[in-house]
Every structure is written in C-alpha cells, then in structure tokens.
Design a protein that fits this description.
Blueprint lengths: L3 H14 L30 H57 L1 H10 L24 H9 L2
Length: 150
C-alpha cells in the first residue's frame, strides 16, 4: 500500500500529466504581433475626398428619393381626381338612364297622350276590325295618305 501522502501526490501527477505520469513539454507561447489595419481603398479616392464623395452620393440618393416620392404623390392626386370625375359622370349617366326609362314607360306615354294631346280611348262603337279580305290591293298606306291629303 501507498502512504496517503504519496497517494495524493500520485493523484495530482495523474491529473496533471495523464497515464504516463511524465511531464509534457510545455507549448511555446506565441507572441502576438500587432496587425496593421487593412486599408480600405474606395474607387473615388481616400481620406477627406472619399468622405466628401460618400456624403455627396448619399445626399444625391436622398434628393432622388424625395423627388420620386413627390412625383408619385402628384400622380396619386391626379388619379384620385379622375376617379372623382368618373364617379360624377357615372351618377349623371344613371340619372339620364332613369329619365329615358321613365319617358319610355307605358304609363308615362299614356298619361302624356291623354292630358296634353287630348287623346281618348275608343268606345265600342268606334272600333274597326279589319280582316284579311279587307286589305286593299293598292296598299293600305296609299289609301290613308289619299284620304289625309284631300
């Protein structure tokens, strides 16, 4: 048996060195050398020129964005005004269609004929029935025209 002090030492070496209980060569510590920062080269110069050019391009892009937004707002206003005009015209068309329907309505025509033109419905005695034998050979329209202009 191993004395307790040696046992603890053995455990410590086992944990430290592993199975073979021999010290491993210590790894060399790398010395870090300072890296120089990479220089970014821009196609339009470097330094103050680059900063000015970058600010100029960003400003130009913002101005273009504002112009495009204003133009789209103008187009939207024009479209909305055309939609308003179109709806007004559609309302007028509907009113005219109602007037045409009411002017062609049978009740309207009958009322106009009786009130303004003083037409009346024929009585039983004033009705004339025409059969196929009563059709004149010369033409019915010619006979009516002849009687009308006499």
């Amino acid at each position: 048996m191993i004395a307790p002090e040696r046992w603890y030492e053995h455990q410590k070496n086992y944990q430290k060195y592993g199975i073979d209980m021999k010290p491993q060569p210590e790894p060399r510590q790398r010395t870090r050398r300072k890296r120089e920062p990479k220089k970014i080269t821009l196609p339009f110069g470097s330094g103050k020129k680059a900063a000015f050019s970058l600010v100029f391009l960003v400003g130009l892009a913002m101005i273009m964005l504002i112009i495009i937004t204003a133009y789209s707002a103008s187009l939207r206003y024009d479209i909305n005004s055309m939609i308003r005009e179109n709806s007004a015209l559609m309302g007028e068309i509907e009113n005219l269609q109602v007037k045409v329907y009411s002017a062609n309505n049978v009740d309207y025509v009958e009322n106009k004929a009786t009130s303004k033109l003083k037409m009346v419905y024929p009585s039983d005695g004033s009705r004339v029935y025409i059969s196929g034998d009563d059709i004149p050979e010369e033409g019915f329209a010619d006979i009516i025209k002849e009687k009308a202009y006499q």
